[in-house]
Amino acid sequence: MKKNLFFTLLLLPAILMQSYAQTGKANKALLRKADETLQFAARQYKLMMTHVPDTLLPRSTNKDGSLMTSNANWWTSGFYPGTTWYLYEYTKDPVLKAEALKRMELCKKNQFNTRTHDLGFMMYCPYGNALRITGDTAYKRILLNSARSLSTRFNPTVGCIKSWDHGTWKFPVIIDNMMNLELLTWASRESGDPRFEKIARTHATTTMKHHFRPDYSSYHVIDYDPATGNVLQKKTHQGLADSSAWSRGQAWGLYGYTMMYRETKDKSYLDEARHIADYILNNKHMPADLIPYWDYDAPDIPNAPRDVSAGAVAASALLELSRYTGKAEGKRYWNAAETMLTSLCSPAYLAKEGANNDFILMHSVGSLPHNSEVDVPLTYADYYFVEALLRYKQWAK
Ligand code: GLY
Fold first, then answer.
1. What is the predicted pLDDT for the residue at 256?
2. Is the residue at 276 inside a domain?
3. Most CB atoms within 10 A, among 15, 28, 94, 200?
4. What is the CATH classification number for the domain harbouring 359?
5. Which residue in 35, 136, 165, 176 is the catalytic one?
């Protein structure tokens, strides 16, 4: 009896956290708004599917206002079928399922693509959701092949997966790559082969060491010497400056370390995610509606473009992070995510039906330094927004 009491006391914090995990406090108005918005999103994507050529995938809006598409080789190819799966999960509309299946076929060949680090985005978003929602085990083989292809880019001397083959870099690793690791942790669980997870953990731990500044903002690109593992350069590609905090990069890091904590229960990843969340939420340039400017150090704040994609990724991550932290801290993350979602569901960011090339959200930034995809819809903003709305509905009590 005494022993039982001892163990109960020992486990009390975990029990309390678990019970908190099931009780993110619901904002009734936002729950209603989430339903309305998900229904709108499904109608919007059913319009979009009639405009996208059969062999292509939607990507953004061109400078002339027309729909920008990509083929399946582009890093964002998996988001549209992934979002369509989420919307099918919500509506059970067979038209959405048929569309997800059709577009996913285009992505299938990427299971053998070893020239990109983006296979998590490209394959786990469509095929991971397809497996989860349909239970069709045929998708497992495709996902395992994808995990094998991604693993070929790992260099044990560096302790990272190489991001890009282009440019003058020796061994570039970008913070975005944290997002691709879930494919690997899944692959180890599924196959029983620990090597995939080992690669994911090593990559995450190396990134923690070199990508972050003392204030927990992150560099975009770290270039390593592939022969020694030494850091050669700390740079940016899509941010304002090497020393600045590119908003989407901070969001990828936040989501990546929250996900890696879920997948491994390694507390150092949880702490990293909490520090990144605090950097973002305490940033003096974070606007009141919590939708960040494209770079936290943009010189023309408050007139700088927002990056809605960074807001959507961060909202989804904060909802999850709130479930792994103590009550007061969790409430802060949960409330911040609610503010972000309330903003994203407002006319300031949510498209009008039939407008915005039928994307759900407006006002994202792909790469401002390259004058590419500035103040446009982006398919990954939609993906993480829909994911966040579904998470909110699932976790709000
Ligand atoms: N992964 C590329 C980007 O976030 O723009």
1. 99
2. yes
3. 200
4. 1.50.10.10
5. 176
Give helix 182-191 / helix 195-210 axis angle, nearest 10°: 160
Q: Is residue 215 part of a domain?
A: no
**What is the average per-residue pLDDT within 36-62?**
98
Are the beta carbons of 25 and 397 closer than 8 angstroms? yes
Ligand 1 centroid distance, CA of 13 (Å): 37
What predicted TM-score, i.e. pTM, was given to this entire model? 0.94
What atom of ligand 1 comes closest to residue 121's alpha carbon?
A: 1
Alpha carbon 280 to chain centroid distance? 16
Residue 309 alpha carbon, nearest atom of ligand 1: 4
Say if 255 falls within a structural domain.
yes
Question: Which range of residues forms the domain containing residue 383?
Answer: 22-51+247-397
Confidence of residue 334 (pLDDT cuts 50, 70, 90): very high
Number of domains in the chain: 1
In sequence order, the 6+-apart residues with CB closer than 8 A to the CB of 186 are 124, 128, 143, 147
For residue 12, pLDDT over 70 is answered with no
**Is residue 343 within 6 Å of ligand 1 at its C-beta?**
no
3-state secondary structure (DSSP) of residue 61: strand
Is 118 marked active-site? yes
Q: In this predicted structure, what is the pLDDT of residue 26?
A: 85
Q: Strands (DSSP E) along the chain, which ranges?
A: 57-61, 67-70, 154-155, 160-161, 172-174, 221-224, 231-235, 364-367, 372-376
Indicate whether 139 belongs to any domain: no
Residues 372, 339 contacting (CB under 8 angstroms)? no
